Amino acid sequence: MTTHSQPTRPCIAVVGSLNMDLVLQVQHAPGAGETVLAQGLHYIPGGKGGNQAVACARQGAEVHLLGRLGNDANGATLRAELERDGIDHTAVLTDPEAPTGLAAITVEASGQNRIVVVAGANARFTLDAATLHSLLTRASTLVMQLETPMPQVLVAAQCARSAGRRVVFNPSPIQPLPGALLPLVDVLVVNEVEAGALAGTAVQTPEQAAQAAQALRAQGPAQVVVTLGAAGAVAADGAGSRYHPGRKVQAVDTTAAGDTFLGALTVALAEGQSLDIAVREGIRASALCVTQAGAQPSIPTRAAVAQSPLPPDWSPL
What we know:
This protein has a single domain (11-18, 47-100, 122-316), classed as UDP-N-acetylmuramoyl-L-alanine:D-glutamate ligase, CATH 3.40.1190.
């Protein structure tokens, strides 16, 4: 009798932040000196590390998260939510002094958001290199962002490189990077603002995104993806650059759209898919994300993504 083995479930390690999101629904964000009335107030699990871990888990990966929470009610809630998504949070430590990170988010009727983050315990995150090395004996990929201290991000990347594992890096919120970091990155995922800041050029069109992506590739990453919001994304590697159009949807809230894109892309790459197929999956997942409110509640499952329409075909640039 012939047996067929099931594809191996990818294992992904995430180093990153955990925040409780304080979400205010407004018709428009207040200008300087302006007071506006909110139509709603919600407390929702978030933080880029937590969001990207959840996005990877809901796309079917085994996920191990390294982070830091406060010894407070928000921390307990966030830990319980990680548990519910099946994410291993053994390496998420509890800080006895600092509160859990908090993000104040205004969401306009158009879906546009504005975010102010209070780092809290995230700012005191210290990487346990031995724990990460142990996780990387199983995990094929390390995912990182910049809501934890830069020195810890650099150490994490060095650990992954020494273990021969793929490093997926999202430099958000954007800040100057140490010269040693990008050469350790395999896949760089940036939005148009981040791409422009790192490449030192304006990025508004797919053509400009392609130029910025290739400039960033020259700094180390073999693969660069520039997301363009509703317009889609540009993928760049040694074979050139390709433009992937977005899917047209009615956006309700863009919070976590970039994290959702990264999670779907990362899992597809970990499963052995090409960069273009992975970007396509990222677009499908993020298009679903923006149709729902909140950060982690809006991140779709793999089943939901599989049932969603495909974006238009990509084209070379």
